[in-house]
Amino acid sequence: MPGMTPTDGCAVAAPSITFRPPAGHIALVVVIFFAALAGSCVLLKRCLPFPDVPVVQEKLEQFTQHGDDFDLVFLGSSRVYFQILPSIFDRIAGEHGVPMQSFNAGIGAMVPPEDSYVLDQILRRPHRRLRWVIFEIMPLHANFDPILAETGRLTYWRDWPRTRLLTERFGKEWAEALRGANGRAVGWPAQFETCCQALEVWLGNVGLFVRNYCNLGRGEELFARQTGRAKKSGIRLVVNGQLWDGWDYPKISKPMAANEKKRTEYEEALDGLLRTEQRFDFGDSVSRETLSAKLARLAEAGVTPIMIIPPTVAEKRYYPTPIAGQSLTIWDFSDPRQYPELFSVDHRLDGMHLNAAGAEIFTKAIAEKFVEIAKSGGPLR
Predict the structure, then answer these.
(1) Dist. CA 138–CA 268, nearest whole Å
(2) pTM of the entire structure?
(3) Are 158 and 208 in contact (CB under 8 A)?
(4) SS3 call for 133
(5) Number of C-alpha atoms within 13 angstroms, CB side, residue 147?
(6) How far apart are CA 151 and CA 108, in angstroms?
């Protein structure tokens, strides 16, 4: 009809209003969310007790309670944990006029960077008398020992400094894969496979870092602690009226000397070691950085470091190249020609470890070298 508009007599729908926040607003919300999440994780971690990690928790608790009583600490893998007896070391040092109370902080399958985390934890606890740390020298390891799978040992030490070092190792492995091992050209399938393997290892390490940082699975511990239901610790601090010194020895069913197959394999490996002069692996830049950080931490604490290479028949041993500005004291017990008693079949568990008799000989050798340093007032090789 004349004078009517197209909408006359019809219902008009209200215009749709859709609010679309700008990208910057979304980004800000995401940043705030993750910042709050990170802050909550840090706060929760401070409220939680040290994780219930067998052996590690036990040894750190000894320092929490009695750290001021120890003058020297041994640190390393099972080649330290099972092979250095503080009771023998202290007795020999005392007989030579160097009173000493030492503690074995070695832990089975502990390699860098886990060992540096344990060292940091020791130095954060009472250590008024601590003046020496004798530690097993090893390169940085990106892989973990399969025996630790599905245990707390894989996660408790995963902080950012350690994860950063593992990330640097990942980058180095990628670079080496792309240019070929030792500068040799390799086909792209081999390069791709090596890169994928390195990526898988790195992602696994990052996942463990996230798990540790987010305290996954530890809410029950906090609840039990707040409600007074936390389980009582079975940690031993005193043994036979004396401070526990951290040493232990593995229980084995059959020594190598009585196992013909193991004995033959060991003798073959030892023979190969005796015929080579190239016993050392001088490591890479990331391993040197890891070692430098450890030495710097000890220097800051006023503690003198001594590095040892235990007696094994491994094809190569890590012997770092000189680090700028730092004097390295390294005792090498890995030469069967210089220390034949440490490689005797009668003193071995296997190619990597000594038996109880061998451990006593090894401890005495370390103590004698230490007495020389303590009496001279300066490091000796």
Answers:
(1) 24
(2) 0.84
(3) yes
(4) strand
(5) 3
(6) 13
Cβ-based burial of 359 (10 A; exposed 0-12, middle 13-18, buried ≥19):
buried
Q: How far apart are the first and last CA of the chain?
A: 111
Homologous superfamily of 51-146+234-376 in CATH?
Answer: SGNH hydrolase (3.40.50.1110)
Residues 6+ apart with CB under 8 A from 128: 67, 68
Report the SS3 class of residue 104: strand
Q: Which residue has the tokens 């936390």?
A: 230
Cα–Cα separations (whole angstroms), residue 206 to 12, 163, 168, 210: 57, 7, 12, 6
- Tens place of pLDDT per residue across the chain (381 aa): 555 555 555 555 555 556 667 777 677 766 676 566 556 556 655 666 778 898 999 999 999 999 999 999 999 999 999 999 999 999 999 999 999 999 999 999 999 999 999 999 999 999 999 999 999 999 998 888 888 888 889 999 999 999 999 999 888 887 877 776 544 556 777 778 888 888 899 999 999 999 888 876 666 665 655 555 555 555 667 777 788 999 988 776 566 777 888 899 999 999 999 988 888 888 888 999 999 999 999 999 999 999 999 999 988 889 987 775 667 899 999 999 999 999 999 999 999 999 999 999 999 999 999 999 998 876 544
DSSP string, 25-71: HHHHHHHHHHHHHHHHHHHHHHHSPPP--TTHHHHHHHHHHHGGG-S
Closest residue by Cα to residue 82 from 56, 100, 105: 105
What does the buried/exposed string (b/e) look like for 181-198 if buried means 16 or more CB atoms within 10 Å of the residue's CB?
eeeeeeeeeebeebbeeb
- Residue 9 Rama label (left phi>0; alpha psi -120 to 50; beta): left
Q: What are the boundaries of each domain within the chain?
A: 51-146+234-376
**CA nearest neighbour of 305 among 139, 135, 138, 137:** 135
